[in-house]
Amino acid sequence: MKEIKSTEFLDKQIHVEAAKKIQSILENADKECEVISNSVAEELEKSRNQKQEFYNNKIDDERKNLNATFPLEKQRLELSFVQNSLIDGINNYLEALGEEKKLALVLKDLKNQASFWKDKKCSAYIYGFDFNATKKELEKILGDNLTAVEKTEYGKMIIEEEIALKTQQGIILEAEDKSFRLRLTINQIISHILDVNREELTVALFGDGEND
Q1: What stretches of the chain show up as alpha helix (H) in DSSP?
Q2: pLDDT, tens digit, for every residue of 57-106?
Q3: pTM over 0.85
Q4: Which residues 6+ apart lie within 8 Å of 159 measured at CB?
Q5: Which residues have CB under 8 Å from 134's CB, separation 6+?
């Protein structure tokens, strides 16, 4: 049975590799949003240092209560640790990204789905973002297709996948004839990145699963 890698190595790999992968994916999504700098890496390093002792103690305590007859439980703990650390990295990244760039990501998603709304009258519902600034950008993109803009709350208009983001921001676009409802949210963008790239991230963090 493959031994669990050391906590120090695992923690370092998670924060460093997750930050690199997330940065690369989002930068490729929109070159206008490439604002990651050394300050982001510094923030991740601060977060890693603050949490390292906590995680070390937690994993060590759990190890003492496990033995070789419970490999599934060991795997569950390891995966939970990876997920929590990855979300920490994502939250730090989004905080450093800034409001303007996060809105640009969401609006790019809106433009990519123009086939849904280009011949439709639509209403937009905004949460998390600055209302007036977001409304102005929506009017630029949708033009006469936009008939109403209102504020809403996270989870009120549509069900969101819970991935523990610190700040929830997004736009819900709904056709007047109810033929579609588009979820254009930071939560949706991050969920898609995790779904599409989970295997890649896992290999980057743990290797290909073969014995050393």
Answers
A1: 7-29, 38-64, 71-97, 99-112, 114-117, 131-142, 186-206
A2: 777 776 666 655 566 666 777 777 777 777 787 888 888 888 999 999 99
A3: no
A4: none
A5: 103, 126, 171
